[in-house]
Amino acid sequence: MILPDRFEDKVGFTQVRAMVAQYAKSPIAREMVQEMSFSADPAVVRSRLEETAEMLGIISGGEDFPLSGFRDVTGPLKAIQVEGTYMSSHDLSQLAKSLRAVEDVRRFMSQREGSTRLKEKASYLDGFPLLLRSIDRIIDDQGNVKDSASPELASIRQQLSQMSGRINSIMRRVIAKAVGDGYLDSDVTPSVRDGRLVIPVAPMHKRKINGIVHDESASGKTFFIEPAEVVEANNRLRELEVEERHEVIRILQEISRVIRPEIPALLDTQGLMGEFDFIHAKTLFAKKIEASMPHLSELPEMEWYHAQHPVLLQSLKTQGKEIVPLDITLTPQKRLLVISGPNAGGKSVCLKTVGVVQYMLQCGLLPPLYDNSHVGIFQDIFIDIGDNQSIEDDLSTYSSHLSSMKQCLQRGRATSLILIDEFGSGTEPQIGGALAQAMLKQFNAKEMWGVVTTHYQNLKQLANELPGLVNGSMLYDRQKMRPLFKLSIGSPGSSFAIEIARKIGLPISIIDDATEIVGSDYVNLDRYLLDIARDKRYWEHKRDSIKQKEKKIEVVLERYENDATSLREKRREIISQAQDEAKRIIEQSNSQVERTIHDIKRSQAEREATLEARRRLKEEKERLASQMPDEHPLLKKAPKTKKKKSPTPQAPAQELKVGDNVKLDGQGTVGKILEINGQQAVVAFGLLKTTVALDRLQATMAKVQSGAKAASFVSSATTERLRDRQLQFKPEIDVRGMRADEAIQAVTYFMDDAIQFGQQRVRILHGTGTGALRQAIRQYLDTVRGVDSYRDEHPQFGGAGITIVELS
Question: Does residue 626 surpass a pLDDT of 70?
């Protein structure tokens, strides 16, 4: 059920329907667009969406769906259902083009792989090949009956051609004679009046030309005369034309009799082709608004990403602007969203976007959402937006709102979606807010889903306390005082009434008076809520950042563990192979030693034989050593430890003596050696004397600076670093989220730099919270020399969440 009757106008679906109709090629499809309606049947909705999504895949793949030849001939087909009627040659030509398009669509879909909804729909198409051949036999491409349609027609048209040639020949002779007699100009040409060939003659010569006067020009200066010589020929020509017309009608009646039994099937085919045209139109519109096929559930569900109102999207595109998309998630535990925020902040647009996107979905149009969105089916959609007052029904604005709420309460159920703008407004605020709160409780008790916009604090508080409800806010840039049009779910928003009034220049006395009337606590409540929301977003960003870093660490750890496991396996393999190789070498060595001992014993230890045996043993050792690889192949694959580069040998240092000018290793300041004691030297750098090891000094030809310059012994590198720090220094620090000791340490370094670099004013962002961090920072500031004063920031720019420090 959809309420009220003007639902489509209220959410902007009327414009959506008009935009879809622009893409339809045939009247059948345009009529289907106008008849497009809301459905709560999940099977019907899924079928409509999947057909459009399939067509979108075809078009997005660069293929052209063959609908260009389709013509709507429903009217002419219905007109010849009566016996004796016939289709015109033009209508037959359109029917032939339509049948060719039918065959093109059927062939195109049959060639696609797999079983799809569109392929199944195309299988019911009938191209009527025999009927098409019959039409092509008698009708040419221009929609005229061919000469070969019948022997009689061919004969008649041949006689017509011959008679036309004869008449033209006679007319040329008559004109030539009249020109020779001076009755006609030499450039005169024949004309046609009432289907007969005539010549234009001046009034003074009209009696000189023998013939019949058929017409006179508007000015009376020309008479059109049919010469007597061609009267008979023209009569015969008219007779042949009548015979031709009768023969053409006979042929058209004959082909119409062939078509008449096929009219029901032809109309079904026309309807089916109209559906393809309708789906094609919906697809072109979906591509225009960047729509896609979401995940569809048969139960109420709403997890939308990048939702856009199609009408607003096209409007902003024409202005060269970009739309701010909407992300919204409602669950069975948080079904009713209460949106608050400033006026002109986008609350009503958000409400209309939810309404039009859900309505589009259940009308079979692909919604402008990302394809990872999850959507559900609602049995009812109720909306109350705008002014519904009626003079005829004696309804005021608030009465009309109450009437709408009554219907919602009576007909609402767990599968209903309700959309209410400015809930409770239109009457005295206190009672209006109370009634709105009571009705919101009833909506929640019925487990209805919905989106409600409001400025009332009691509704925000109810959404924060009552299960089933959730707060939401339209974000607002307090620094630039402009809406961001972004929806944030989880915390209420501020109306920014005081801030907006101050921005537009309302007298400050009025603003102060209003603040005093409602009380500072009430005014500050919104500010505290915004501080909480800001801190929440800060910690959410922190949490997301930590999660990302943890994922990276997990990936790195997994890679290192895999590498370590691989290295351990390779190590075991290398050790095993090394042990086997060592056993083989030892066995070979033992065999050689035993042979050597045997040879020595056999030769009775003669000196020459012993030397020879030792020589052979040495050769065997060398042979074994040569067989040993320098490095095992597997060891080559293992990661190697980096070798430290040996220091490059330095040239012998010049011998230093007292009075030499020197530089300290790595520094640019020039000093003079005052005395040398062993490996130590006393060096004067400007006004500073220091003892330095001789190996850290280098002789230089530069001279020691004198005078005031000598007092500056800070290196240029140090000066450059200080300059860079001063250039990069920002007079603001953010310590929100830190513990007190961490924040104090950060502020200490910050204040040291600020004083050193001569800053006059700095800002410390510590947030509101419980106030403990603010108090600790201010206690520290009391101990800092150079701090003149400190205070809260202006309420418009952060208030008690920021401390402004004035420096001397």
Answer: no
Token pair for 81: 């259902």
Of 244, 242, 239, which Cα lies nearest the Cα of 158? 244
CA 305 from centre of chain: 10
Distance, CA of 108 to CA of 102 (rounded, Å)? 10
DSSP helix/strand/coil, 208: coil
Neighbours of 109 (CB within 10 A): 20
139 CB-near residues (< 8 Å, 6+ apart)? 89, 92, 93, 96, 145, 146
Residue 476 has pLDDT above 80, yes or no: no
Residues 6 or more apart whose CB falls under 8 angstroms from that of 297 comprise 374, 375, 376, 377
DSSP, res 650: P
Q: What's the pLDDT tens digit per position in 511-546? A: 788 877 777 666 666 666 666 666 776 787 788 889
Q: Rg of the chain's alpha carbons, rounded to an integer?
A: 49
Per-residue H/E/C for 445-456? HCCCEEEEECCC
User: What dihedral angle (degrees, nearest 10) is formed by the CA atoms of 208, 213, 218, 219?
Assistant: 10
What gap in Å lies between CA 244 and CA 156, rounded to an integer? 6
* C-alpha–C-alpha distance, residues 348 and 425, integer Å: 14
pLDDT digits (tens, 9 = 90+) for 132-172: 999 999 999 888 999 999 999 999 989 988 988 888 888 88
* Residue 692 to residue 423: CA distance in whole angstroms: 82
- For 119: left if phi > 0, alpha if psi spans -120 to 50, otherwise beta; the answer is alpha
CA 805 vs CA 216, 719, 751, 759: distances in Å: 103, 27, 10, 10
Q: Which residue's entry shows tokens 């259902």?
A: 81
| 731 secondary structure, DSSP code | S
Q: How far apart are CA 225 and CA 253, in angstroms?
A: 39
From residue 525, alpha-carbon distances to 338, 427, 537 in Å are 18, 24, 18
Cα–Cα distances (Å) from 750 to 731, 763, 777, 790, in that order, read: 9, 10, 12, 15
DSSP 224: E
User: To the nearest 10°, the Cα dihedral for 360, 361, 366, 371?
Assistant: 130
DSSP conformation class of 185: -
Q: What pLDDT was estimated at residue 394?
A: 41
